[in-house]
User: Fold this.
Amino acid sequence: MILTVTPNPSLDRTYEVPSLDRGEVIRATGERMDPGGKGVNVSRAVAATGQRTVAVLPLGGAPGALVADLLDQQGIEVAPVPVAGATRSNIALAEADGVLTKINAPGPELTDAERELLLETVRQQSRDASWIACCGSLPRGLAPDWYADLVARTHAAGARIALDTSGPALLAALRERPDVVKPNAEELSEAVGRPLATVGDAVKAAEELREMGARAVLASLGADGQLLVSDRGAWFGSARVDAVRSNVGAGDSSLAGFLIAGGSGPEALASAVAHGAAAVRLPGSVMPTPADLDPAAVTVTADLPADRALTEPVS
Assistant:
């Protein structure tokens, strides 16, 4: 079982539009409503493969009730933490050329009691978990070191934890040595405080995160592929993608694929790449099923293309 923790979940509405023109009336060609949040997406991706997952998340108001109902419809067990504030609602506008514009609401502010209840719920639900995936931004009311506290408690209980967050929350958590951290290129650049222009730059940045405490780094480099750097070595993975429909949740699908495959080594990286590539070919934040995967399109190598320029360098 993979347990996910989403401190700031959302109700996500995605509209497909021909193009985004400011000040104009735009008629959508398609729309979806999904439970949102990075940890929620990881649970959805795990459930799409037929494996068990439990989602821990604070929920409040009508949007929170709808999130729980949508997850239940997808066969995902929910361990809700009741909060007084309403769960946030987000909007994504997906253009025909693959460009995505997102409007994310701030979400409710958690009280001290709600913060402790969230930690206690994770403790209660984690007994049977092979991995705990903690993902996304922190809501108002949770200090940047909240993830660090959660990592420490998880290790004290003998469990493994994967962390997908950024900024001060990521840096604070590194001191507790999370088993895996999963930054994208922008988050990786922010963490080391310098630009990334090549795959080699990303590898060096991932190694620095390991020096700061991360036991392994799974880094998403967008269309260029993914990196895995751990004490077992470093690998680079990529996949052919003919057409991108939506990249919403692609990184979360990658993390799910990585954990499903054991969370270690080149085989897990290949699974992460296959899941991420499948996700971008699907609309909105739809998570891929095994039938959507194309393992033959994935390449994983220990011969790192250090000099390869990133398609979207981070300055």
Notes: The chain has nine helices and 16 strands. The chain has a mean pLDDT of 94. The longest helix spans residues 265-280.
